[in-house]
Design a protein that fits this description.
The protein is built from six helices and twelve strands. By secondary structure, the chain is of the alpha/beta class. The chain folds into two domains: 5-88, Nucleotidyltransferase, domain 5; 92-240, Nucleotidyltransferase, domain 5, CATH 3.30.420.40.
Length: 249
């Protein structure tokens, strides 16, 4: 089991770790350089950092990345010749119940993030916020029953959409100011505060729930959530994937 490799391929990043459990307080995952869907597919070399790892017995993959997942799976099979098992969202899993009318339509990254959160804070009501290209917020009751969720653009996508859809608004990376005194700072601050405010509104609706946040944009949102004392877990999806894999044996 410890020779297996766990991969989390999101919209912008690939993260990986072994099956060996990591302490709750540590990230425990290795992060590859950013990979975006907007970039053209490169002919070779895009996954090279991953293949510095020793050949695993098998690979467990969680992915919402479409064609990039197909490319990665093909290269794993070519280079390592091992099985690749893709995680799928079920209607029911030990300690967790899906609320979707069509269970498999719930994103596998959200499902696994909820599993990871349940591993960390079992028997607690939870708000699980994943801040990446999209911001997803999911609520679980203390028995692990999914109450539903929200999906909006993440802060970077908000900024990029303003730049693409308007004639003169700049392409902004981020901003740490509370209120902007330039257009760029106003866009940067607005995108961060909009996402933080949505998470805070859900927390107000579910005051007994613990807030767990993860994702590449989580660090941007943390200052605006300080009063809620969120628990930041960088490798939340990988933790859920580890739990998922353990129950498939």
């Amino acid at each position: 089991m410890n020779d297996d490799l766990l991969l989390d391929l999101g919209n912008t990043r690939l993260k990986w770790t072994s099956r060996v459990p990591a302490p709750i307080a540590s990230a425990g995952a290795k992060v590859m350089s950013a990979l975006t869907h907007a970039a053209p597919n490169k002919a070779s070399g895009i996954w090279d950092a991953l293949f510095l790892e020793a050949r695993p017995q098998k690979v467990w993959l969680a992915s919402v990345a479409g064609k990039h997942a197909d490319s990665l799976i093909a290269e794993i099979k070519q280079r390592w010749g091992c099985a690749v098992i893709r995680a799928r969202t079920p209607a029911q899993f030990p300690g967790w119940t899906n609320s979707y009318d069509t269970p498999e339509r719930l994103g596998v990254d959200r499902f696994l993030a909820m599993l990871g959160a349940r591993e960390i804070a079992a028997n607690s009501a939870l708000i699980v916020a994943m801040a990446g290209t999209a911001l997803t917020i999911d609520v679980l009751d203390a028995k692990g029953v999914h109450q539903g969720g929200l999906i909006v653009p993440g802060p970077s996508l908000m900024r990029a959409s303003l730049h693409r859809a308007t004639a003169e608004l700049p392409d902004v990376i981020a901003s740490s100011v509370a209120l902007g005194r330039s257009t760029a700072d106003a866009i940067g601050a607005g995108s961060v505060r909009a996402c933080s405010a949505l998470i805070a509104a859900v927390a107000q609706d579910f005051p007994a729930a613990k807030l767990i946040i993860s994702g590449g944009a989580a660090a941007e949102l943390q200052p605006g959530l300080a009063s809620l004392a969120p628990l930041y877990i960088e490798d939340l999806v990988l933790r859920g994937l580890r739990f998922y894999a353990a129950h498939q044996i």
